[in-house]
Design goal:
binds S-adenosylmethionine; alpha/beta; Rossmann fold; globular; disordered N terminus
């Protein structure tokens, strides 16, 4: 399938104004993400580490969805949405979700994931900077741009394009790799020269073998988003402590806060991450910086 600009539409079109998730959950719960990442029906919760790492992000998304779509589903565009780690759960909640991604293999995996979950996600192959041409203006109540600005050739152009795609009153959810955290993680691993390099390199890279082309600080991310004309909102730190402790510790279900072990370590760490996410100093140390911005 091909749209007017020649981009392949890799997945099925959205259903005709479907208003209820197929499992019968009410669309009124549009702001509450499913607490799992597995295909529908497996009955399994995500492992503790995955749950902890995503909790702050989903909380922030829930809040913004409650604000922009209090009564029902919204139009969500996930630019660089990849295999649908966010798109599919949002579709499960009843939102109309479009993923625009440059990688056709990722879109094929997205199709499979959506099919397994029993939901429809529209997939469009294309570049983030062409978002306005691909989808038109005022196409989205919410645009997700998660872990993408690190990789695009022109981050400013990508943010301008997503801004143009947003409806007035809509919001953008931008997630990027944090520069300060990269220095911390390299130093903790004993790579002190790398850590120094991260802090002095304008792109926040630790060296030539660093696979991430650029990282951001709170200031560089906020400036980038503000330059597109969006109003910069809350900044959350995502994974402040979670990446500094072993997965095995997070997955333990019987250790944690309190002497009686009444809460699992994952729950205790999630509670800690939730408080630290908005701490004015700690949030800047997070592996990922999550910025909400509004049009
Ligand atoms: C690290 S993955 C993130 C996937 C997803 N957003 C998530 O958070 O799970 C980066 C994604 O951005 C896509 N991407 C990279 N450069 C792009 C560009 N210029 N335009 C559109 N998509 C791009 C890649 O194909 C990939 O799917």
């Amino acid at each position: 399938m091909t749209d007017v600009k020649g981009a392949a539409v890799a997945a099925q079109e959205k259903p005709a104004e479907r208003s209820e998730p197929s499992d019968g959950r009410r669309v009124g719960a549009v702001g509450r993400p499913p607490e799992r990442s597995e295909p529908r029906g497996t009955g399994r919760r995500p492992r503790g580490s995955s749950r902890v790492r995503n909790a702050v992000l989903w909380d922030a998304l829930s809040t913004v969805l409650d604000r922009i779509a209090p009564e029902g589903p919204s139009d969500v565009v996930d630019v660089g949405g990849g295999t649908g780690g966010f798109a599919v759960p949002l579709a499960e909640l009843g939102h109309r979700v479009t993923v625009v991604d440059a990688n056709p293999d990722a879109l094929a995996a997205l199709e499979r994931r959506a099919a397994e979950a029993g939901v429809t996600v529209k997939a469009v192959q294309g570049d983030a900077v062409d978002l306005l041409d691909l989808l038109g203006p005022d196409a989205a109540d919410l645009v997700l741009c998660h872990s993408v600005l690190e990789y695009v050739d022109d981050p400013a152009a990508a943010v301008r394009a997503l801004t143009a795609t947003l409806r007035p009153g809509g919001s953008a959810s931008v997630l990027v790799a944090g520069q300060v955290a990269a220095a911390l993680h390299r130093a903790v691993a004993g790579h002190f020269d790398d850590a120094r390099h991260v802090l002095t390199d304008p792109d926040g890279r630790w060296g030539d073998h660093d696979r991430v082309p650029r990282r951001f600080t709170r200031a560089t991310l906020s400036d980038l988003v503000a330059a597109s004309g969006l109003t910069v909102g809350e900044l959350h730190g995502v994974r402040i402590f979670a990446d500094l402790v072993p997965d095995g510790l997070i997955d333990a279900e019987t250790t944690g806060r309190g002497h009686g072990g009444e809460a699992g370590a994952a729950d205790a760490l999630m509670a800690l991450e939730s408080v630290a996410a908005v701490h004015p100093i700690l949030r800047e140390l997070a592996t990922q910086l999550h910025l909400l911005a509004h049009k």
